[in-house]
UniProtKB/TrEMBL annotation:
Pfam families to which the protein is assigned, alphabetical: OTCace, OTCace_N
GO molecular function, one term: aspartate carbamoyltransferase activity
Stated name of the protein: Aspartate carbamoyltransferase
Complex and partners: Heterooligomer of catalytic and regulatory chains.
Lineage of producing organism: Archaea, Methanobacteriati, Methanobacteriota, Stenosarchaea group, Methanomicrobia
Protein family: Belongs to the aspartate/ornithine carbamoyltransferase superfamily. ATCase family.
Enzyme class label: transferase
């Protein structure tokens, strides 16, 4: 499989065989991610982090991944302190940064911005999240978490919360369809999974169920992927206020769950998971955040070409 100089923009650019290979490389690198072993795979390499919208876990886990592999980080820093504030367009920024770095990680609020950046980049581009469309590195770490904590083939999973604007669940649906997952979508009517995604899944003969009630399905699933209602994606603040507290995971709810149920969340959470869930064996969202390090290490090493 050829990964060197390949852009990472959408999960739809990867086959199941390629996804499995990336997950295998991440597992090999996990001791390095935990600091148990050392690596110089990215020695002499400079990775630029261009983040045009707020991020904690994605940005920091990329930084840790780069440093654990011996590379150096070139960060845009505050957008307000950059030439973007002088009116520089994204294409020119990408052209310039390509002269400084061996790879660019881009996070941008506009849909399709990462794909557009590849037209001007002279180095590989990894999409760190663009608008409400794609967040492939999050999906890779979600798949890795599910594989480490449960299983992928034929998984019974529920995705709950903001399914309309949540780019993490959009990408995850496609990826899990490659493994024959059974999917249940739990949301208020205003935040339903986009119809085109549901239609695409059903065309692939993926079993899809939709409901507004967590209690109805909590005993029938192996993984619950919870998401926050994203205030920043709502054009109308009043619409956000109407739906922000519709779904919540509590300790009482989990009394009806399968003992092996795993709860995931891309974080940050607001109030959709009660703190009393954190210390239960179901809660895997903090470990999930760590898994972002080995998976991003794998993607960096493969796209730069230090691992084949």
């Amino acid at each position: 499989m050829l990964f060197k100089n390949r852009h990472v923009i959408s999960m739809k650019d990867f086959s199941r065989e390629e996804i499995d290979y990336i997950l295998d490389i991440a597992e090999e690198l996990e001791p390095v991610a935990r600091g148990e072993e050392r690596s110089r795979l990215l020695d002499g390499k400079i990775i630029s982090l261009l983040f045009f919208e707020p991020s904690t876990r994605t940005r920091l886990s990329f930084e840790v991944a780069i440093r654990r592999l011996g590379g150096q980080v070139l960060s845009l820093g505050s957008v307000e302190a950059s030439s973007v504030m002088k009116g520089e367009n994204l294409a020119d920024t990408i052209r310039v940064i390509s002269k400084y770095a061996d790879l660019i990680v881009l996070r941008h609020p506009l849909d399709g911005s990462a794909r557009m950046a590849t037209e001007f980049a002279a180095v590989p581009v990894i999409n760190g999240g663009d608008g409400s469309v794609h967040h492939p590195t999050q999906t890779f770490l979600d798949l890795y978490t599910i594989r480490r904590e449960s299983h992928l083939e034929g998984l019974k999973i529920a995705m709950a919360g903001d399914l309309k604007y949540g780019r993490t669940v959009h990408s995850l649906c496609y990826a899990l369809s490659l493994y024959g997952a059974e999917m249940t979508f739990v949301s208020p009517p205003e935040l339903r999974m986009p119809r085109e995604i549901v239609r695409e899944l059903r065309k692939k003969n993926i079993r899809v169920k939709e409901t507004e009630c967590l209690e109805e399905i909590i005993g029938d699933i192996e993984v619950l992927y919870m998401t926050r209602v994203q205030r920043e994606r709502f054009p109308d603040p009043q619409e956000y206020e109407k739906v922000k507290n519709k779904l919540k995971i509590t300790g009482d709810l989990l009394k009806s769950a399968d003992p092996e149920l795993k709860i995931l969340h891309p974080l940050p959470r607001v109030n959709e998971i009660s703190p009393d869930v954190d210390d239960t064996p179901h809660a895997r969202y903090f470990e999930q955040a760590f898994y972002g390090v080995p998976i991003r290490m794998a993607l960096l090493a493969l796209t730069i070409g230090v691992i084949e």
